[in-house]
Amino acid sequence: MHxxxxxxxxxxxxxxxxxxxxxxxxxxxxxxxxxANKLVxxxxxxxxxxxKLVEFSVPGLPPDQxxxxxxxxxxxxxxxxxxxxxxxxxxxxxxxxxxxxxxGGKQMACTFDKFDVAGNQLDAQLQCKGQMGMTATxxxxxxxxxxxxxxxxxxxxxxxxxxxxxxRMELQVSSQRTGDCTG
Length: 183
Fold this sequence. Notes:
Elements: H1 3-16, H2 29-36, E1 45-57, H3 63-77, E2 81-85, H4 87-91, H5 95-103, E3 108-118, E4 121-130, E5 135-144, E6 148-158, E7 166-179
Antiparallel strand pairs: 1-2, 1-7, 3-4, 4-5, 5-6, 6-7
């Protein structure tokens, strides 16, 4: 797993865990980057990361289909990944990952409702809109340190194409520095 993927997962998780209050207005990218810059920068090196499926549901699916889909998604998240974080990448901190999250990719347009940093604690919420009326709310809460991170990531996707109109997923995403980068 590449470090931006892990960082993106962490940021996505942070975004979902926000409280039920309606935000006054979305945070600008610059506001989110300024908050992310308060986090300790990761040390360069080799990292091991895991993403464990905590919850997965598609309420509109029959139970047997939902169980098969949950098993398939669980199988995709259980493996450990490894990536090398270079000194140049570490020096940038989380800025690039935050900017990519805000961009949302080609399929989605995203805004941060919340991105709060207190010491090594992160609490963020992200709202995304996509094609054919798809929406997603993502939240992340957890800790970020120089050599490790541990985040709860929650996502709720809504779209007419999803049976029952909604899919919910929660992941526990962790990474740990394991030493210097290898070849």
